[in-house]
Amino acid sequence: xxxxxxxxxxxxxxxxxxxxxxxxxxxxxxxxxxxxxxxxxxxxxxxxxxxxxxxxxxxxxxxxxxxxxxxxxxxxxxxxxxxxxxxxxxxxxxxxxxxxxxxxxxxxxxxxxxxxxxxxxxxxxxxxxxxxxxxxxxxxxxxxxxxxxxxxxxxxxxxxxxxxxxxxxxxxxxxxxxxxxxxxxxxxxxxxxxxxxxxxxxxxxxxxxxxxxxxxxxxxxxxxxxxxxxxxxxxxxxxxxxxxxxxxxxxxxxxx
Length: 256
Hints:
Shape: globular
Helix content: 25-40%
Largest sheet: 5 strands, antiparallel
């Protein structure tokens, strides 16, 4: 399918019936499975700042030739009606292997605001998705856990939040390091979630520095080196500080 000109994109995006147009045009592009066309579309979203608030949440490597993306956008029509969409994608350099469009709403739950996603459209290109699985397995030796895709799980560099509370998962991970549970730490390295992968590299490095007589196979070193050279960012938290950092920057000091 030919890529439409940016002029036509802008006409569609910035028209009076913006909410319907965005949803319709986005659906059409995703169904075409053309990632290059999708990139042109998201570029044009940024040019409608008065009508659309667009944010790329995640754009990072998953496996050789494949990446995961999350973006959200808020759109208003001429009556100031507002809707928020949350879109997840798994793509090769030119094609989209999987996508889901959700409507996002925040709900109050026990004095906390929780994100609630209502799936509107979901599609998987089975052939291309199987190629992603094969690519992931060639590096990490296992199939990726689908439940760990498209997650914004920050790395805890200490207790998070005002009280500095350490989560149950982080406490468990810290125990693995103290008790030399290398194979359990490697579970995180084999996760498709980049935050878990970087946590694993950090944990293995800590075990090495603590004199745990850490031995890594060539395959394990290959996995580590692949993660260290991934493009994209990870989320982290330390006390009341929350942010993101390039994967390469976050792992550059860990030598094996």
